[in-house]
Amino acid sequence: MASLHESYIVPQLQERRRRLEIARASTPGDDDLQRLLNEVDGALARVANGSYGICEVCHDPIEATRLIVDPLMRFCLDHLSPDQQRELEQDLEMAAQIQRGLLPEPHVRLEGWEVHHRYQPAGMVSGDYCDVVQLANRGEFFFVLGDVSGKGVAAALLMAHLHATFRNLMAGERGVHRLVERANRVFRESALAPYLATLVCGHAEPSGTIEICNAGHCPPLVVSRGGVSAVEPTGLPVGAFAGVRYGSRSVRLVAGDSLVVYTDGLSEGRDRSGEEYGAQRVAQVLGAHAGASPDALAEATLADLSRHLAGNPRGDDLTLMVVRRTA
Q1: Percent of the chain, pLDDT > 90?
Q2: Do both 309 and 254 map to the same domain?
Q3: Same domain? 196 vs 302
Q4: Do 289 and 172 belong to one domain?
Q5: Residue range 194-207: average pLDDT?
Q6: CATH number of residue 20's parent domain
Q7: pLDDT digits (tens, 9 = 90+) for 131-179
Q8: Is residue 30 pLDDT above 90, yes or no?
Q9: Res 37: pLDDT
Q10: Dihedral Cα 295, 263, 122, 168, nearest 10 deg
Q11: CA–CA separation, 145 vs 199, rounded Å?
């Protein structure tokens, strides 16, 4: 966890201390400000002596994702007070509501296109990211589907960070490889840099052509009556390195063809014996339902996954998007 401390925790604590000193200078004698300053100094002292990130009750490591959300954390989840547990539950409920508000409509109809998605977080909040943004030309739009490393509130914050980054950049960019390159720089240079995101960004045009940039994500699948083919990655995950160059690939869909993008919560779903569902089985199910509507494709895939799991709970978030050409 040393790299996390150096790259994120210490700068965050130092910035908090600077702001508290400014506030205390303008309002001398404020006991709350002094208390917060003491807590920040205590955390910096724990970093210096090597005890930072260790629960003060059981002496086990505190969850790294919780330290990112609150660098002053001193207890692991198992040793929160009842009041702290209630506050955490309330925060998770609010975060889940905010996340759902960032998602596109489940079924989006555009000129010549339909886009359908299924979003199934493993817990209250998710690190999966999904968006559809229509451009001025009614048959032209961006779509993004990704998976942020980590779990819990920290992953949810990263998901919201990516959502805002892409939304801001889409207004002035059309080439998906340049869009992902710019998003990568923003993400890598932010305070959230220790974490990565795999994602697929696509730009659909009225002609039926989709330009795709795949940043280390599960290969999207083109589903047509002629079969199923994969669109391989064209670059590293977002956040890996600041100066990464990304490529793109173009596919042409005709009426009835679909592009299916999913997170690894689908392909890596395991049954009770530990056997993965697998990308090959995803492709087989989609091929058996080629030409079906987007919601029917999604339903068939998730139903087959459920049969494979046979009641074994999923251990990861799952998001599935189907982009279908209708004309």
Answers
A1: 57
A2: yes
A3: yes
A4: yes
A5: 91
A6: 1.20.120.910
A7: 999 987 767 999 999 998 877 777 787 888 889 999 999 987 778 999 9
A8: no
A9: 92
A10: -90
A11: 6
Q: Which of 209, 293, 197, 192 is nearest to 250 (CA)?
A: 209
CA nearest neighbour of 129 among 241, 3, 237: 237
Provide long-range contacts, Cβ within 8 A and 24+ apart, for 134-137. Answer: 134/108, 134/110, 135/170, 137/206
Q: Which long-range contacts (CB under 8 A, 24 or more apart) does 183-188 make?
A: 183/238, 184/215, 184/238, 184/239, 184/240, 184/242, 184/244, 184/246, 185/242, 187/161, 187/162, 187/238, 187/239, 188/238, 188/239, 188/240, 188/241, 188/242
Window from 46-50, 121-125, 210-214 with minimum mean pLDDT: 121-125
CA–CA distance, 228 with 225 (Å, rounded to integer): 8
- Answer yes or no: is 89 within a domain: no
pLDDT-based confidence at residue 189 (cuts at 50, 70, 90): confident
Domain interval for residue 31: 2-80
Same domain, 121 and 240: yes
Domain total of the chain: 2
* 324 sits in which H/E element: strand 318-325
Residue 201 banded pLDDT, cuts 50, 70, 90: very high
CA atoms within 13 A on the CB side of 288: 11
